[in-house]
Design brief:
CATH architecture: 3-Layer(aba) Sandwich
Distance between the termini: 40 Å
Strand order of the largest sheet: 10-9-8-11
Low-confidence stretches: none
Structural class: alpha/beta
Number of domains: 1
Number of helices: 9
Radius of gyration: 18 Å
Number of strands: 11
CATH topology: Aldehyde Dehydrogenase, Chain A, domain 1
CATH superfamily: Aldehyde Dehydrogenase, Chain A, domain 1
Helix content: 40-55%
Length: 235
Amino acid sequence: MATTLHHWRNGEIFEGTSGNFSDVTDPATGEVSAQLSLASPEDVNEVVAAALAAFPAWRDTSLTKRTTVLFAFRELLNARKEELAAIITAEHGKVLSDALGEVSRGQEVVEFACGMPHLVKGAFTENASTGVDVHSVRQPLGPDAIISPFNFPAMVPMWFFPIAIAAGNTVVLKPSEKDPTAALWMASLWKEAGLPDGVFNVLNGDKVAVDGLLTHPDIQSVSFVGSTPIARYVY
């Protein structure tokens, strides 16, 4: 019997309210491996609200504490990369060696994000003009949306969310509805690493979910990888 996959909100599974589902298939056999809950506009609001509520506390968390969570996530990911690769193979269909390579590419960004204290430093220029000193301060934006494609269900999200989280933002990840389990697996790994609830969320769905994120007033930035026509639509 196929399992049912839902969303991830506030550090736990969120079933949503739409009542609409799509099939997740095993590309090796063509058989349905899971039913995926598709977000309604109300579900989008619920998940974004969780990210917004978590933002002030995470923004004010010290860089040291933030990077402690990043290091914990890195260690867990390193220890369980084969598990994530197997999930990718089961839903995407790429061979296991390619899936492991994808995870390794994502791990590189996690490693980079662990150095965030040095990356978000501001700058100070004394006497830039006569009697004028210049300060620059980098600040987190708020809830960020990530819309990722089918072909790299782990690597592409990891291009974005380690940096966003380390910099003090909260995240709503909308993975492809064809291979969503990798995103949910990484969400549970963040929970285990000690990330506060609401900082990393997963919203599963189709165009309804995407449109809801693109037009939501509380989403402060959108990161996207995909085809040129869809990129124009997102923009």
